[in-house]
Write a structure and sequence with these properties.
This protein has 14 helices and two strands. The longest helix has 33 residues. A two-stranded parallel sheet has the order 1-2. It is 61% helix and 1% strand. The two termini are 37 Å apart. It folds into two domains: 134 residues; 166 residues, Clp, N-terminal domain (Double Clp-N motif), CATH 1.10.1780.10.
């Protein structure tokens, strides 16, 4: 797979942002018109009861869809490289937050700065505020603000050599690879994440400088500390918004399965940290892989370096 160009990533981020804003604006328009149709007095509304109920259901569904689209749209930021991930947050959140502090329209007066009346009404503004809450407040990690909020049993269980926490985890692993998988879980715990993704896996692979993966990255001229710092920045920006999955993510599972295939292709009986690294880098759409590729750690170079290093053994840690 070919890595998306910066221009395509920027255009995708802008497109997603405008789709989210369009849905929010449409919802604000609809609830404002619904409020007008229901009437505000002093005379009773002339809207039939059946139509009023239809508007009730439609308002509920559209409001729920607005919050869902806001969360779903912003979550796509994780598929962009770090230099573009912030675009979605910026384009969506800035105009909405500014709008919240714009004066509401008073009855009988013109709307502020000639803005559409549905954005200046109390009903429309409430819809916008809900979207902002889903976007900003939903990104907060309450487990960091209130330590001990989540029961300890909800945290990932530590891996021990010879066992798995995921059914069907393929292949046999070298001792270093088992340690890297255990480190992956510790990294997830460090960020209070219930899931384990490729970013956690890469942090685990690079945690032991004597492991084959770390040695390969260093030999290719990449600074381990710099890669770890960038990864921690990416994970830290996501917060609790990305903690809905428990256990290994599908992409991380695919990387481990890919590492098993790489090991078999190399004629190795066990999966090493180097095989895990190569399988990860081959995931061109993955943020962790993109960080490595941008530093010059490509799948081809990793494969060549692994052949130079030879099989990963326990003696290599000495």
């Amino acid at each position: 797979m070919v890595e998306r160009s910066p221009v395509k990533q920027a255009m995708s981020a802008v497109l997603i942002s405008f789709i989210v804003l369009a849905v929010i604006a449409a919802a604000a328009w609809f609830v404002t018109r619904t409020a007008e149709a229901l009437g505000t007095g002093p005379l009773p509304s002339t809207l039939p009861a059946r139509n009023a109920y239809i508007l009730t259901v439609a308002t509920a569904l559209l409001s729920a869809a607005t919050g869902g689209v806001t969360l779903l749209g912003v979550r796509q930021a994780k598929f962009f490289t770090p230099q573009f991930a912030w675009l979605v947050y910026l384009i969506v959140s800035v105009p909405l937050v500014l709008l919240l502090f714009t004066p509401l329209q008073r009855f009988g007066h013109e709307a502020f700065a000639g803005l559409p009346s549905f954005l200046m009404s109390a009903a429309g503004r409430t819809t916008v505020a809900v979207a902002v809450g889903a976007l900003l407040i939903g990104a907060l990690d309450l487990r960091r603000i209130v330590p001990g909020l989540i029961h300890e049993s909800a945290r990932p269980v530590a891996l021990v050599p010879g066992t798995t926490v995921v059914r069907g985890l393929p292949g046999r692993f070298t001792p270093n690879a088992w340690r890297a998988l255990s480190f992956m879980q510790e990294e997830a715990q460090r960020f209070d994440h219930a899931y384990m993704g490729t970013e956690h896996l890469l942090l685990g692979l690079l945690r032991d400088p004597a492991a084959q993966a770390s040695r390969a990255v260093v030999n290719l001229g990449t600074d381990l500390a710099a890669v770890r710092s960038q990864l921690e920045g990416v994970i830290g920006r996501r917060g609790s918004l990305y903690t809905g999955t428990s256990g290994l993510t599908r992409r991380c599972q695919r990387v481990i399965e890919g590492a098993s295939r790489v090991a078999r292709a190399d004629g190795e009986r066990t999966v090493s940290t180097g095989h895990l690294l190569q399988a990860l880098v081959e995931q061109a759409e993955d943020v962790a892989a993109q960080l490595l590729v941008s530093a010059g750690v490509t799948a081809e170079r990793v494969s060549s370096e692994l052949r130079h290093l030879g099989p990963e053994t326990e003696e290599q840690k000495q």
